[in-house]
Design a protein that fits this description.
Elements: E1 6-9, H1 16-27, E2 30-33, H2 34-41, E3 44-48, E4 53-56, H3 58-71, E5 74-77, E6 91-96, H4 99-108, H5 113-124, H6 127-135, E7 141-145, H7 149-170
Parallel strand pairs: 1-5, 1-6, 2-5, 6-7
Antiparallel strand pairs: 3-4
Helix pairs in contact: 1-7, 4-5
Length: 172
Amino acid sequence: MLLPNILLTGTPGVGKTTLGKELASRSGLKYINVGDLAREGQLYDGYDKEYDCPILDEDRVIDELENQMSEGGVIVDYHGCDFFPERWFHIVFVLTTDNDILYKRLETRGYNEKKLQDNIQCEIFQILHEEALASYREEIVHQLPSNKPEDLEDNISQILKWIEQWIKDNSS
């Protein structure tokens, strides 16, 4: 059976991982967190001292994911989206969070002040939503609120309905 590929993107701290893991558990799709994949495979191209984090080697990530993505049935979780091939995804969900809630989540993670402020600015200016719209067909890009537990349940329900419909529409 043909299954869709889904991209979950958004500023760090908006709830991509929580949504992705729960969605995979309920849908049977495979969940891939690109940050974890990069860590496990050391898919890095240096270190950013200013942000205190490794720099992702995007080409190696693409090479690592290519076969799984062509098989279908994958949920990809990453805070960037402009380097993934457009052909990979059937739908893109950009999670958004109110700035005061996001600030607290990032503060809890121990982000340094510059990283914290830059991520809040990214959310204020909807940088990742704009990146998604620039990288994929507009009709497959959707924003989802991610502020409270009820949002998580609503988002899961909405995406599960979409998956079910996609499977119906694409089965022969």
